[in-house]
Amino acid sequence: MSRLVYVLNGPNLNLLGKRQPHIYGHETLADVEADCRRVGQELGLEIRFHQSNREYEIIDWIHEARETAGGIVINPAAFTHTSVAILDALNAFEFPVIEVHISNVHKREAFRHHSYVSLRADGVIAGLGTQGYTLALQRIAKLINDKKA
Ligand code: DQA
Fold first, then answer.
1. How far apart are CA 54 and CA 59, in angstroms?
2. Residue 119 confidence (pLDDT)
3. What residues form DSSP beta bridges with 100?
4. Substitution candidate for ligand 1 out of 9, 22, 79, 102 with most atoms within 8 A of CB
């Protein structure tokens, strides 16, 4: 299985560190990317890290991952709660998918409690801050390694 992992981020996450820091913390998306690259290297994973405010771009990256990647870590942000299209794209991807939320969505407004993406995700991490991303990478590395054994 490919050791390439896509780390995909949805709308407004480009403002991470500046936007509602009491909820999302002070780390920027560039910090998260650096963490993912460092941990990815330790785990022997190649990382493709993307963010977009446009639903179709996230869908196109999932299609790209379908051809090349062994796993996807995705924080779909607000699209989590609205996007059947992202769910459909993930359903066409056959390898592990881990859904990450920086905040604990279950402690927040009721509309954040439902996730379309969770219908496909193999695991969900919420409320562990930006650490959730590297924990998700550890899980994907384990799933890839177990498949090889
Ligand atoms: C989020 C939670 C979503 O409800 C929200 O729309 C986001 C970020 C999180 O990482 O906690 O933009 O996915």
1. 9
2. 98
3. 125
4. 102
In order of their start, the domains of the chain are: 4-148 (3.40.50.9100)
User: Over 80: is that where the pLDDT of 138 sits?
Assistant: yes
| Ligand 1 touching residue 103 (CB < 6 A) | yes
* Overall pTM surpassing 0.85 (yes/no): yes
**SS3 readout for 71-109:** EEEEECHHHHHCCHHHHHHHHCCCCCEEEEECCCHHHCC
Q: Are 100 and 125 in contact (CB under 8 A)?
A: yes
Whole-Å CA distances, 107 to 39, 111, 119, 121, 140: 28, 11, 20, 20, 26
- Mark whether 116 is an active-site residue: no
Q: Name the 3-class secondary structure at 52.
A: coil
pLDDT for the residue numbered 33: 98
101 catalytically annotated: yes
